[in-house]
Specification:
- It is a single chain.
- The protein contains 9 helices and 13 strands.
- By secondary structure, it is of the alpha/beta class.
- The strands form 2 sheets. The chain has a 9-stranded mixed sheet with strand order 5-4-1-8-9-10-11-12-13, with helices on both faces.
- Strand 11 (about 220) and strand 12 (about 230) form a beta hairpin.
- The chain is globular, with a radius of gyration of 18 Å.
- The two termini are about 25 Å apart.
């Protein structure tokens, strides 16, 4: 069964551990530098592929060296990249992340071609043929925020396609725009800060309730070190984190989404799917980058005992 990831595609360059930016022309020797596919669509696509899913990724990237590298990384991981459109006037979105010893991840970021994505990039019938469509970062691919694309989502859902959504930014104006997608989404997976900014509710349970009232059947709020909260119209459950040695938190949200979606594809309920997401996020947290240590589904599920 196919999963379509649609939205933000970013190339990440990561280094660890970084205590600070050196003065002048000074050089700091670090333990590790990696380049990964990242972003709420591309990072999730790679994680989904490693968990055994058939994945097609749709987005906009630059016609540049960064784009070539991103395509190579995704293709090497088994992601179908034929849905990526190349832009000659915009660079591929990219980030440089100096990872602190505690796993924190400040970033230098270029939005790039992500801002140019429109419904025209989505092939006819693609969404309806998918088991799951994952909207990864519609807050930064706001060209999709139009009636034509919402009609495509509605048509796909009528044929049985499940729609999930995650966000990329913590910018209030962008998150307000992303709320327009909620009536067309079955499962929404924001982090705690995003949920609070979208609803004005600091309590994640109240924020989840407010988001449920806007359309999704399930809202999963990721809470960082406090785990996650799974809310439906019937009840609310807390899922604790799995204890691991954290190296880097980059991509943990994308991995959580990938594990959650994989659970849905395997016919699991939302609580079991959230456990799969928790295990995928815990796996990624143990290494550098959005795909770190993520080998296959069996290895992820082994963390659950």
């Amino acid at each position: 069964m196919t999963v379509v990831t649609l939205g933000a595609h970013i190339l990440d360059v990561l280094a660890r551990p970084v205590q600070g930016i050196p003065d002048g022309q000074d050089t700091v020797v670090v333990d590790e530098i990696r380049v990964t596919a990242a972003g709420a669509a591309a990072g999730t696509a790679v994680a989904l592929a490693r968990l055994g899913n058939e994945v097609i990724s749709v987005g906009a990237i630059g016609d540049d060296d960064l784009g070539d590298l991103l395509v190579t990384i995704m293709d090497r991981n088994g992601v179908d990249v034929t849905g990526l459109v190349r832009r000659t006037s915009d660079q591929t979105s990219a980030s440089i992340l100096p990872i602190r010893p505690d796993g924190g991840r400040p970033s230098f970021h270029v939005p790039g071609a992500n801002l140019t994505l429109t419904a025209g990039a989505v092939g006819p019938g693609l969404l309806g043929a998918a088991s799951v469509v994952h909207l990864g970062g519609p807050d930064v691919t706001f060209g999709l925020n139009n009636p034509a694309f919402f009609g495509m989502l509605a048509a796909a859902r009528e044929t049985g396609t499940v729609v999930t959504m995650d966000l990329l930014s913590n910018m209030p104006d962008l998150l307000t725009g992303a709320a327009a997608f909620l009536p067309h989404v079955d499962h929404f997976l924001p982090n705690e800060e995003q949920a609070a900014l979208m609803t004005g509710e600091d309590d994640p349970e109240k924020a989840a309730a407010a988001l449920l009232s806007q359309g999704p059947g399930t809202v999963v709020v990721t809470l960082g070190g406090d785990g996650s909260l799974v809310a439906t119209a019937e009840d609310v459950h807390r899922i604790p984190i799995l204890p691991v040695d954290v190296v880097d938190t980059t991509g943990c949200g994308d991995a959580y989404c990938a594990g959650y979606i994989t659970g849905l594809v395997h016919g699991k309920d939302v609580l079991e799917s959230a456990l799969w997401g928790t295990a995928a996020a815990a796996t990624v947290a143990q290494g550098l980058g959005s795909d770190a240590r993520l080998t296959d589904l069996d290895a992820v599920l082994a963390l659950l005992g």
